[in-house]
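Lab meeting minutes (informal)
Scribe: AK
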Amino acid sequence: MRSRELEGQYSEFVDFYAKQFFPSPPGDLGAVTSSYFMGVLDALLEDILHWYPALSATLTPENYLSHLQTRINWQVMFYYRIANSLFRDSSDHECLPYLAALMKIITGAEVYYSTTIGPRFMVMHGAGVIVGPRNEIGSSFMIFQGATIGQQHDHSPGERAIIGDDVRVYAGAKVLGSLRIADRVLIGANSIVVSDLPCSGVYVGIPVRRIKPFPYPTSSS
């Protein structure tokens, strides 16, 4: 399928939702989204196929939309990748808040477009996930439902987390404030992190403590 046809499909996809939820969305919202989509399509496919390699035989640029419509968690990555790419080109573009709102309305998740997330990003389930603004997150990042990467104090725009590669944040966990997390860290369900985690491993509890080594191979393995 030609790229122009793909762009048209994604423009219609976004415009359909925009018309449901906004009385007067930007007229070029679908067109802007679809043009940036083509630039991040390879990244989106990598996000999915890293975690679901069995789909490599069937998932293609041409049928990605059919998968996207029924896999709501994939739509989190879809809106994030597009909005982040647009943000890096034009940080005050009028379409940005609409893309953020569509993600929140449709998926129940908020991943701020000013946060940087490396390749092989995966949101599991999606509902209640919050990744706040200005964080720096490495490759092969996985986050589960109800988890938060956010501020520790109210009205603290300077706070941000710097998170390494191969980090997994399980359901309900909270990572709060300005801190650093090493590569190869698993944060267990409902745990709370408010200070640096400088060593690889599995961390659980309130506050977290390290209980064992990281159990998975690195993303390059």
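Next up, CB showed the second protein from the same session:
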Amino acid sequence: MTDLAPIYRDELAKPGVKVLHVADLDFRSQCPTFRHCLTLMKQWSDATPNHSPVFVLLEPKLSGLDKAIPGATQIPPFDKAAFDEVDDSIRSILGRDKLFTPDDLRGDLPTLEAAALAKRWPTLGQARGKFLFLFLVPGMNLKAFAPYLDGRPSLQGRAAFVQGQAGMAHTAFMLFDNALTRGAEIGDAVRKGYLVRTRADIDTVDARDGSGKRRDAALASGAQIISTDYLTAPNVYANDYHLAPFAQGWRCNRLVYRCSSAR
């Protein structure tokens, strides 16, 4: 293979939060550091004024392959300093005016969940030009997020939302990966006011099979955020499975609104 992304050795050697999938195995990223990624997003946003809101999913890596493979990299703990660096980097590079934060949603309500259930989310027009950062919680291990939530039960002063479950003060954002089996749960959560992410494809199964069943279930579920690894066709498995971006970066959600014509 000759078309691999560069390794960016110099940047990876510097202090700071790095961006990769799996240490030692899948570490080639278009932007090797978090600050590099944010800089690219800022440049794009400045060049694309009034763009649709951008949802940025963040997944802190809590473990590596060192317990299974001798000599593999030991993942440093994602501690308070790391979480604070994420927040500080987001604010310093993008700027407050480009962010929609938990504080913006909560307003004067007692909890972030109360604000979500009150459906205080901005309109498309109000959210244009902004970014929403959303932490995924691997294995719903919220203990690992104690440094981010301590003293901030509704994410007061934080830059990013954190995945949660009903009944938790910080919950405005939920994750239901498989719309084939959890479509009803997704619809119920969206109707109540939660922001929901699901997946059009999981691992490589759907693309290898050329099956759009999970994708179509995700689209029908009403989830506001749908992730895919396959934006164009043909895909790397030489079939037509894909999920193209929505026209103009958004679609009307038929689950909660009357839509004259929407995808």
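CB comment: The chain has a mean pLDDT of 93.
No objections, moving on.
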